[in-house]
Design a protein that fits this description.
The chain is mostly helical. The chain has 7 helices and 3 strands; from the N terminus they run αββααααβαα.
Length: 167
């Protein structure tokens, strides 16, 4: 089941990046501006290119590459020896940190104006939790997904000798 959830993340992650996370405005009388992950990154690219590059790599590329790697692993198109690298890539993925920072900012609120939560925030949250669950499930149950354990792959690489008969 988790392999299908992981495959769905390949579509849902990009959708959640463009979906409106919040609607923000200064006064209730004026229209609210929709803010998404992409619009936030666009404004960051306009102000600080280096920081925008770092956030883009760790908030978009790392989680998506981890999802692709897990999909390849689940369908036996990638060696189980890559699982530690995917684990490190998952630790580098900043999407969950970004989400926590966003929730803290929403909880504190802004001094002037108002903020409304949009549907994209729920989608983005669900994608991140699903990605974390798939990663943990893959790590816990390698046999369920057809992934060989490290000892099995190491044993398969060794030549097999039968013990010599002593007379």
């Amino acid at each position: 089941m988790h392999r299908w959830i992981n495959l769905s993340l390949l579509v849902l992650f990009p959708l959640s990046w463009f979906a409106p996370l919040v609607r923000a405005g200064l006064l209730p009388l004026f229209g609210l501006s929709e803010i998404s992950v992409m619009t936030g990154l666009q404004s960051l690219w306009a102000s600080d290119v280096f920081l925008a590059l770092v956030v883009t790599v760790f908030a978009l590329f790392a989680p998506y590459l981890k999802t692709i790697g897990l999909a390849l692993l689940h369908w036996n198109l990638l060696s189980a020896r890559c699982l530690p690298a995917l684990h490190v890539l998952g630790k580098l993925a900043m999407a969950d940190v970004f989400l926590i920072a966003l929730y803290i900012a929403l909880t504190k609120g802004i001094g002037v104006g108002r903020i409304e939560v949009a549907w994209g925030l729920y989608l983005f949250t669900a994608c991140i939790f699903a990605s974390l669950w798939v990663g943990l499930r893959t790590k816990q149950s390698g046999q369920d997904t057809g992934i060989a354990s490290k000892s099995e792959t190491d044993a398969a690489d060794l030549p097999q000798y039968s013990p010599a008969k002593i007379k």
